[in-house]
Structures are given as structure tokens and as C-alpha cells.
Amino acid sequence: MPGQRVGYVRVSSADQNPDRQLDGVSVEITFIDQASGKDTQRPQLEALLKFVRAGDTVVVHSMDRLARNLGDLLEIVQSLTDRDVHVDFVKEHLTFTGDESPMATLMLSVMGAVAEFERALIRERQREGIEVAKKRGAYRGSSPRISPGQAMEMRDRVQAGESKALVARAFDVSRQTVYRYLAAVTEIEKLGGRVSVGDFPDSASDLRGGSQDDAKRG
Asked: Are 152 and 110 members of one domain?
């Protein structure tokens, strides 16, 4: 009996469409993580590793979607192929089965290193762009858009039965941001502390990402 084709998708933020990564690719089940490339917490990847069996094929859009770095990539692929699970990278047109020649293993290392290098270049360009914008006075960084009082109001409205989607729409933020503020308020109160601005997320992507569409989905 042939094994299953199991998809793995990683998106970096809530407003990214996970369907794009394996669009048109046949899989029977898909595990989706929302995490940055450097995030070590990828619960759906861990679930996938426990789920697959000998004869299955793990299908991923590209190497950088599966692994955080080259060492991580080699370790994951090796752990899967050692269990007779194949790994198929769609973008690179590469499939690993555990029967590869030393040349194929070298190819995996080279392609993984190239992906890691490309990510480093992107980060460097972002830093350079921010520096140029700062010199022009066009970049002022990000600041919290939700005050401690507003965070407490969020908490009160949710406790009163209002949906998180409506709360998100009222404050012009995404549902994910509402969840983060609620979690922050709860944690601070557990510790007996006072809620202050510095306790909350302050990146623009956290506060505004997909606010309208995300709120409508709730």
C-alpha cells in the first residue's frame, strides 16, 4: 500500500496565505505553522514528524520553509529518510529518499547553504534600507498603538462576551494582536504587576497585520 503525501507549510505572519505554497500540489493532509524562519517553536512540524510513517512523502514548497538553517535542514531530512520517509522540495525540484549518492547529499548541503545565504542578504538589505530611511527622516520606528487602558478594555469586552473579531475591528488591529494583548494582561495580573506600555508587543506588523480581513473572519 503506497504511503501518504503529507504537506508542510510555514507562513511568517497571519496575513500570509498558506494555500499559495502548495497550490496545485497533490497532498492528502497538510500541517501549517505560523512562525518566523528563526522560531524554534514549530508545533505543527513536530506533529508532522510524529505523524508520518515509512513509505510516506513529506512535501514542502522550499527548503527555507522546512528548516531554520542549514544544520536544521540536514537534521530534519536525515531523520525522515532514516525512517524511510521521502522528502520532496517543490521549488528546488529535489526529492530525497535515503538512497542518495554522496553527490546528492552534497547538493542538499549546497542548496540549503544558498537558501540561508539569501535570507541573510535579505536581512542585510532591510537593515540598510532602514538606515537610509532614518537619514532621510522617513523612518521613525514603531510604537505601541494600544495603551494599557485600551488593553484592559479589550480584556473587559472579551470577558463580557464580545467576540475577539469585533474587538479587533473596534481597535483596528488583527485578531492575533488581540490574543497577544489579552495574554500579556493575563500574565501580568498573575504576577501581581501593573500593566504598562513596555509590557506589550510594539512592532507595526504585530499591530496592523491583516486587521480588517482578519477581523472579518472571526
From this structure: no
